[in-house]
Design brief:
Blueprint: E1 5-13, H1 18-29, E2 35-40, E3 44-46, E4 56-65, H2 69-82, E5 97-103, E6 108-109, E7 114-115, H3 124-133, E8 138-139, E9 143-144, H4 145-148, E10 157-159, E11 165-166
Antiparallel strand pairs: 1-4, 1-5, 2-4, 2-11, 3-4, 3-10, 6-7, 8-9
């Protein structure tokens, strides 16, 4: 595989066995064509943001991929469908949510995909695991992840497992 981009994917679930869903989804990311799972963060629980329902289980995965951003998004959405994802309304509870947070130097603003993800800097459940797997990461137009962590310090987040792993 010719690696062209480092991509970061946020994972979340709050329906069914959310912990098992996120763990299995991390494994599924390792099977995406032309892509290699490089690292996975610890698992965290967080309260829903702008929504109701049970707490979420969250993580961040690091991928090296030769896929273009929209092709990678299509693969992520296929994994969501296989895990029973439905979209009955905005911010609905979900069996699995996979968000493409960043991919290489790509900056996109299309109806299907925005890169960097437009709210990643506002969410502790993204920034904390992102800092875990990519310390020193700079977010395009936003600065270092480390500097953004103070802004989300009041959001409830609990680590479920030890440190992330390299694959």
């Amino acid at each position: 595989m010719r690696v062209t981009d480092r991509a970061y994917v946020g994972l979340g679930a709050n329906l069914g066995d959310a912990l098992a869903q996120v763990r299995a989804a991390l494994d599924a990311l390792g099977e995406v064509p032309q892509t290699r799972l490089v690292a996975r963060s610890s698992l965290y629980t967080s309260a829903p943001v702008d929504a109701s329902g049970p707490d979420y289980v969250n993580a961040v995965a690091v991928l090296d991929t030769a896929l273009a951003p929209h092709a990678l998004l299509a693969e992520l959405q296929d994994i969501e469908r296989r895990f029973g994802r439905e979209r009955p309304y905005h911010h609905a509870p979900r069996t699995l949510d996979l968000d493409l947070l960043l991919q290489g130097e790509h900056r996109l603003d299309t109806p299907a995909l925005q890169l960097p993800h437009p709210r990643l800097h506002e969410r502790a459940f993204v920034l904390v695991p992102l800092d875990e797997v990519a310390p020193g990461l700079q977010l395009p137009g936003l600065g270092p992840v480390q500097a953004l962590l103070a802004r989300v310090a009041g959001q409830r987040l609990h680590r479920l497992t030890g440190g992330g792993s390299r694959t």
